[in-house]
Design brief:
Elements lengths: L3 H6 L7 H9 L20 H12 L2 E5 L8 E5 L28 H12 L8 E5 L5 H8 L4 E6 L2 H13 L4 E3 L3 H7 L4 E5 L16 E5 L5 H15 L4 E6 L3 H8 L6 E8 L2 H6 L5 E7 L12
Parallel strand pairs: 3-4, 3-7, 4-6, 5-6, 7-8
Antiparallel strand pairs: 1-2, 8-10, 9-10
Helix pairs in contact: 2-3, 3-6, 4-5
């Protein structure tokens, strides 16, 4: 099994060694880079520290191009060189959920590309990245000039992984608290929120004028039947909603039933070779915008 020390000494990870060593000392990676003057927040409990060490131990560093004029985004992911890559569920470390956060999924990749390509739509905006996974879309939003980003997940390991990835891209992070309190007391632009906010009303975590990003979360019909009506509700409260999906069977089935008139296809993006290999049969991913509808069900075009 690959040790953390071996990971730190291998290949390009050597260049990140000092950053990762400091990340191991601070929890949820409330830390930007070792050159940064942003405040460092201390560990809140040993459980947080343990999750950070586990994420670092079981992942490798990868770099992803999101556009010709933007630097690559660095992400710690479960790669073929990691012991967990070909493992079965029973082989996961104790108390782990399935590590969806350890992979870059096509929908999240597409959302991140779209954000970087259309920065003007996100500059100065407050962005909530739902089912953030590895955090790629939220990180892209910060780099596109978003005023603040909340990366939302329900798995504590995912939130630790997101914060690690943010730190490796020079972004200081913190843990989301109550919205008004956090705005008043922290200068951080990127926070993690480890809580199920699906179906929460506007004004709780999401506010009018916000942007919601949802990457690759519509992977089964049960979840889609809950999430899509909620996302439509958000658009009626002046929230802009973007979905990234590689046209999985769930959306295809809904489209055949003519139930997706409120989704506007914005743009499709080709997957890089590494994602082509991991997502057999999928070569492109699409970004949709959720449009509001009238009481009669007619789409309000934007």
């Amino acid at each position: 099994m690959k040790t953390l020390n071996r990971c730190l000494l291998s290949g390009r990870l050597l260049r990140e060694r000092k950053k990762i060593q400091q990340i191991c000392v601070h929890v949820k990676i409330n830390y930007s880079t070792y050159e940064s003057e942003l405040p460092v927040q201390q560990a809140t409990d040993q459980g947080d520290m343990h999750r950070v060490r586990e994420v670092l131990h079981h992942t490798d560093s990868t770099a992803w191009e999101l556009g010709d004029d933007t630097p690559p985004i660095t992400l710690r992911l479960i790669t073929p060189q990691c012991s967990l890559y070909a493992s079965e569920y029973r082989d996961l470390p104790q108390n782990w959920e399935l590590p969806w956060w350890g992979f870059l999924w096509p929908g999240g990749f597409g959302i991140a590309q779209h954000v970087m390509k259309h920065k003007d739509q996100f500059t100065g905006r407050r962005v909530i990245d739902i089912a953030s996974g590895c955090g790629v879309a939220g990180i892209a939003a910060v780099k596109a000039g978003a005023a603040s980003v909340v990366a939302n997940e329900i798995c504590p390991h995912a939130c630790s992984a997101i914060a690690i990835n943010a730190a490796l891209n020079g972004i200081a992070t913190g843990e989301y608290i109550a919205d008004d309190w956090a705005r008043a007391l922290t200068p951080l632009r990127f926070t993690t929120l480890c809580q199920d906010i699906l179906a929460s009303d506007v004004g709780t975590y999401i506010h009018p004028g916000d942007v919601v990003l949802v990457g690759d979360a519509l992977y089964d019909s049960e979840l889609a039947n809950v999430m899509l009506p909620w996302l439509r509700h958000l658009t009626h409260r002046n929230v802009d909603v973007f979905i990234g999906d590689p046209d999985r069977w769930v959306l295809q089935e809904l489209e055949r039933e003519n139930r997706l008139s409120y989704l506007k296809r914005m743009e499709s993006y080709s997957l890089p070779p590494r994602l082509l290999k991991e997502n057999r049969g999928i070569s492109r991913t699409t970004v949709y915008r959720v449009l509001p509808t009238t009481n009669e069900g007619r789409v309000v075009q934007k």
